[in-house]
Amino acid sequence: GQEVTTPRVYKTEAVVLKKLNVGEADCILTLYTPRLGRLSAAARGVRRPKSKLGGHLELFTHSSLMLARGKSLDTVSQAETISGFLPLREDLWRSSLAFYVGELVLQFTAERVEDFAVWELLLDTLQWLCETEDGEMTLRHFELNLLAHVGYQPELYRCVGCGSSLEPTVNFFSTAAGGVLCPQCQANEPSARPVSVNVIKVMRFLQESDRTRASKLRVEPDLSGELEAILRQYIRHLLEREMKTVAWLDSMRRER
Question: How many Å apart are CA 93 and CA 135, to the nearest integer?
């Protein structure tokens, strides 16, 4: 039989999620792509002032790339910007939001596992972060939809304890069970935190809405804070640690 050889050079779109400087002028990039998922690649000489690649491989840039396969690491040979998402680098608040989104993708995806839904969500979210004045609901929408795509969608309609439909009363969110407990079942899990009717409503809405619908949502600060606290605790439970970008996000928020 004939041996199937993978082409030595291949083309892909990608968003740059992370850059690691190596040596005097090289970088190792962590990219998210539509068909290859997350991958690492070397960009040689990219930090030299005259590099043809430099401007097309900035953080959060959406580019079209040509890569050459290598033994341990593929190498970017050509790059062309599709969308620069400039506001994400020019504004510190938007930068912190984008770094948070990037870290979530890095934490919840595996190397070279295709997830086209995550790719579309990522692009859509970066675009939204360029346009929005607030950013909080953009993050909540992103968190809920990313969790759904990667298999951790919180259960918001039925009690994760007994399976009964949730009543419009104060229920309880269980990070361990990945969803909402009714007041009766909460007795078995005292650590579950109270969750208001409105927070569950907002979570359901964000989980089911596209960006156009979700961006019209206006939420009171108290409600927004409660929502963030629940999702942060759930994500911390899933990752078994706090994300690095959380502290920066908090300090940027205080400054605002």
Answer: 9
